[in-house]
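User: For a benchmark we're assembling, each entry needs the component sequences followed by a predicted structure for the full assembly. Here are entry 17's components. Please fill in the structure.
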Amino acid sequence: MTNQDITIKEYTPGKRLRAISFVLIAVGLASLAYGFITDPQRAWANLLLNNFYFLSLGIGAAFFYALQYISQSGWSAQFKRVPEAMMFIIPVAAAVSLLLLFGLDHLYHWAHDGAADHDALLAHKSPYLNVPFFAIRIIAFFGLWILLTQLLRRLSLREDKEGGMRFFERSEFWSKVLIFVIALTFSLASFDFIMSIDPHWYSTLFALKNFVAAFYHGSAVIVLIVLLLHSRGYFDGLNSSHLLDFARYLFMLSIVWGYLYFAQFMLIWYANIPEETVYFHSRWADPSFKFLFYANIVLNWFIPFIVLISQKADKNKTVLMIVCLVLIVGQYVDLYDQIFPGTVGRAAFGITELGTWLGFAGLFSLVVSWALSKAPIIARNHPYLSESVFHHVH
Amino acid sequence: MNRKILVGIFDTEEHLVAAVRQAREKRVAIREIYTPYPVMEAIEAMGKKSRFTLAAFLYGLFAALGVLAFLYYTSVLDWPLNFGGKPSSAFPSFIVITIVLTIFSVTILSLFTFSIRAKVWPGKAYVLPDRRGTDDKFVMVFDKDTLGQDAPAIERLMKEKGASEVYEKEESSENVF
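Assistant: Structure for entry 17:
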């Protein structure tokens, strides 16, 4: 059996999905407008949170994609259009990030005029943490991400037309470049976007934790999209072995996430140095934030870990889908607990929060479904396609 | 006296798997199969189910609870010490030790469980009906006595399914050293 014998469907997004996406975007815009009128600070925080949320899904998908090439994984070859489509959220996040540059004053204490004058630590950090350099970094990071992900996309599309091993080899090379670039730039981006909200506090595990969170939740959304497409009649090659592998990805990442989250917390808790513990103090003093602190661990580590231990549960589509939905909430809670104490100062959740997230979700589904429809849903000439279709693990 | 066994030698795993399936269909008890590498399809065809993962999970669960209980006993109940004003029941600092000892317990207990179930331990003489089973051949073994009158039929079955050689021998164990 060769690749030519595998039936490949074209994906066309349903009219209803498009309509829902546009409605959600409208809701998002309305609630953002409402937020800017009532409480601009909170609106900016929401914009930052949701932008980073969906950026991390795109970065996570790009990393997942690169990892499949580097490890020469066969099983996932038929699903590679899904992370490929998710990478298209990065240019959208770039546009929103440019918008965010106008709100730095509302979000970051260090961006205030004269903030460093009476603050030795901010003065010390000011060669790095200043508005022009922040803008340059953000633009450079997004430039690199868009360049590399679009390069991989073009190689993938050319492989569809021309075939041969050449494009696989080149994709593998550029995937290696991509993970090095992401390792450096996404670390710095998480410092810039999130850690600099609390400019007096620092954690060396912060970048790694947020990177793993991106990989983790990006993978969860990949699984969710694959399952949704499967239920609509695409990916009829999806079998229990693929489900098991997807579930193992999430299971493994739940452990890594839990490990890093705990390591960051435990070291700070144990050392008990005031300039470090202040971060967790501000998250424990308020009962709502304290609840979210524990909810974060339950949603992102405990539930996926316990549920996905059993292989029977791993191979169950409904269970897997529920875990993915839990993780979608989990990433929000994680970022909320990182961003809101430093920007808004209280655990506020209302129209602005819900509406903005829905708006971004609509934008995400619009972009991803558009990107999915631009190419056959299965990469026809991928060298590992047959292996992926006949994938069978025990 | 040693038992008499019926040995079939196959050149490929496909032939072996086919023979295993056929024998299972006829409800003939297969004594054992020997393959140079794990052939998952053959293991599945043998109808062997493993509860090993369940055992490992239970070991892990009880090890984790046991370690936590032990740490609580030593550092809270029996001999509380003041480390820089930390509470005696310092749960987060117990976790690291719990993880390490849980992994250790699961590994060691799983190894012992496997040894007992598979009846292998250091210095034990091993049973190898045909040495080529560790090389490039796939070996299937039946107990001659339990087969009784079916023996000729089984011999035919193995040959039909592509056995390159079928013979009888007395089972014997060899020493490793």
